[in-house]
Specification:
binds pyridoxal-5'-phosphate, seven-stranded mixed β-sheet, 13 helices, two-stranded antiparallel sheet
């Protein structure tokens, strides 16, 4: 049997008739950027997350950047301020901070959830710390209550990188994207809510922040040809917005399918040294990625490929070991390093079959450790 890591054609195929219909409307409408479809998607996605505002933007990195740029434009944060961020995150989280002229402070995750460890966060706070950007990595939410307490105590802003967690719910019923002052979302095609190209959004319930981001994504202009900020071009296309509206309808059901497949992995994988993801008690994991750890990760990955099973590594190099961040190369983050050495992402999507997942489990269970 051949098992792909992710088959995007198969993921999008059920939506084709509706996507084609909307494309026809898009052609006939003759309006291409920031129009009715974008406005409708913004309203629908804000409602989905439970936040007051959604501002649709070009991609997830720009969404994070716009959050920081808006806080700077509003005088809440200034160049050089420190932002605490997990040491094991995807590089785009870090770039959102550095591109805004802010300083990322890497803090180790909790090894059981892969998300920020609040005790270590508190120790990393200095007089220059202004914000925490937590990442709901692999689709598992961060535990927000302890982070909220730290932010209250130290007067910090709390933000989410919600690129991997569309639709994940916290124990109190709140949804990813509505768990902080502002959240950056990515609709990169492979994400749980994927566009057919690049797309992203910011959600927030703060009117002032929402208004500022709306201007910043469009050259700093609220009104055409009148600019109050030195802004950006970080807008969303109308066709992407229309397609996202259609795919949003399927998101909760697709997340449930992922959760069912994850449960099969959880219950069937028996390899002695394999660590399966922990479903934290404070929130519902939506398994953007089904991440396991194994001390012989590379050997396991080659063995699976020989047996027709594609896997990926999220991610092979931690941010502090990247060439782009040479000043960090000598720092030591043992938990992040262990995750990057041992992590393997197993096939996971709403269109994988039970048979495929059972075959992956059976193959893994026969691996000679
Ligand atoms: C995908 C991703 C991003 C960036 O999103 P793009 O739309 O690709 O720019 C940021 N953070 C995390 C954690 C991601 O997974």
């Amino acid at each position: 049997m051949q098992v792909k890591f992710l088959d995007l054609l198969k993921v999008n195929e059920p939506y084709f008739p509706k996507l084609l219909e909307s494309t026809q409307r898009f052609f006939e409408g003759g309006w291409y950027i920031l129009g009715k479809e974008t406005e409708a998607f913004e309203k629908e996605y804000a409602d989905f997350c439970g936040s007051k505002h959604c501002i649709a933007v070009s991609n997830g990195l720009d969404a994070l950047r716009l959050i920081f740029e808006s806080y700077k434009s509003l005088g809440k944060i200034k160049t050089g301020d420190e932002v605490i961020v997990p040491s094991n995150t995807y590089i785009a989280t870090i770039l959102g901070i550095t591109q805004s002229g802010l300083k990322p402070i890497l803090v180790e995750p909790d090894i059981s959830t892969y998300n920020l460890d609040s005790q270590k966060v508190e120790k990393a706070i200095t007089k220059n710390t202004k914000a925490i950007l937590t990442v709901h990595l692999y689709g598992q939410l961060s535990d927000m209550a302890p982070l909220e307490n730290i932010c209250k105590k130290h007067g910090l802003y709390l933000f989410e990188d919600a690129a991997q967690s569309q639709g994940a719910s916290y124990k109190d019923g709140r949804i990813s994207g509505n768990l902080s002052e502002a959240a950056g979302h990515s609709f990169y095609p492979g994400k749980n809510l994927g566009a057919l190209g690049d797309a992203g959004a910011v959600t927030t319930s703060n009117d002032e922040v929402a208004n500022t981001i709306k201007a910043l994504r469009n050259y700093g202009s609220h009104k055409k040809y009148y600019n109050i900020y030195e802004g950006f071009n970080m807008r969303l296309d109308e066709n992407q917005a229309a397609w996202l509206r259609i795919k949003l309808h399927g998101l909760n059901e697709e997340n449930e399918k992922r959760r069912k497949l994850a449960l099969i992995y959880d219950n069937t994988l028996k390899l002695k040294n394999l660590i399966v993801p922990k479903q934290a008690e404070y929130g519902k994991h939506i398994y953007h990625i089904y991440a396991v750890l194994h001390p012989k990760r590379d050997k396991l990955q080659s063995y699976l490929l020989e047996n027709g099973i594609q896997t990926l590594i999220h991610y092979p190099v931690p941010p502090h070991k990247q060439k782009a961040f040479q000043s960090w190369n000598n720092l030591s983050f043992p938990i992040a390093e262990k995750i990057h050495e041992q992590e393997l992402s197993l096939p996971m999507s709403p269109v994988h079959t039970v048979e495929e997942i059972e075959y992956v489990c059976d193959t893994i269970n026969h691996f000679k450790e």
